[in-house]
Amino acid sequence: MTLLANSILFSLLASHALAADTRNGEWPYYAGSISATKYSPLARIDAKNVQALQPVWSWDSPDNALIGTVTKERGGAFKATPLMVDGVLYTSTSLNQVAAVDAASGKTIWVFDPKAYQSGRRPANSGWQHRGVSYWEGRVAGKKDKRVLIATGIGDLIAVNAATGALVTSFGDNGRVDLQKQLLRTEEDRRQIGFNSPQLIVGDVVIIGCTIAERGLANGNPVGHVQAFDVRTGAPKWIFHTVPRDKEPGVETWEDDSWQRTGNTNPWSMFSADPDLGLVYIPNTTPTNDYYGGDRKGHNLYAESLLAIQADTGKLAWHFQGVHHGLWDYDFPAAPTLVTSTSTARKSKPSHK
Length: 353
Known about the structure:
By secondary structure, this protein is mainly beta. The chain has one helix at 3-14; strands at residues 83-85, 88-92, 98-102, 108-112, 134-140, 143-151, 156-161, 176-178, 193-194, 200-202, 205-208, 211-212, 226-230, 236-240, 272-274, 279-283, 305-310, 316-321.
């Protein structure tokens, strides 16, 4: 399929995407927009009146009712950036609950508790904490549908109804998708693979990375490949190998077949995308071991790289590796910001000499 055809395809998909926009005071993505601009053009609060702001309400996390009673687990720091669509805030909590909150009053509208803390497993690497959820609206079976999605620390991708908080049982297996399934070498790896960042939804495709325990294991660490799923059904769409497999492009950068025994290389942070181009931009991280590379000689693609991947197919469009053969744990920790640059340089007048 040509790039033009891909652009047309994703323009059509984007017609089902968000009506919400930061220009209307809403915040439909973790970073405000799908371009990760983290910018709102609203101007009612400025340098002249910011000193006069007063608290209007505060919100009590539903985790507080669970800690010490329902569960012995303790939530970590509150790291989520709430989304705001049509006057409703959507957020995750440290214990991976999802809540909808009235933005004007601070009153809780609903709470969905996936009971991740009952699994007996703590989320890999970073414990009980979570950065946020994703929002999608489109049409399912001809009817308008609005969903909130969360990837729990223990590896479930869950879809709930944005209006009610009810589980969308037609998604995945009764509302849940096993995110670890395609990454496991053995069942023991479930303790090494976690999820605490919001996935990015491009058109109708849910794209997600993961976190991997950073300590080196005797039998090696799993690799944190990028996965994509259908937002309506939860069906797997593609997987991109962040450490190339045998005969894939880039595998030659892992000398002495070290791709077979090297793990991590997982994009744990947030992504950005350009729906018109159909590309998702993914910041990737360091291989095992963070500070020693003697058993993985070579440039080690696609570690510590920016990846531009076709959102509908998972094919690599281009990459830029910031650090060859990284040895300093230089994870790329944030979504790339997409900007449109307009030149203001004046054209020189033609010479009449």
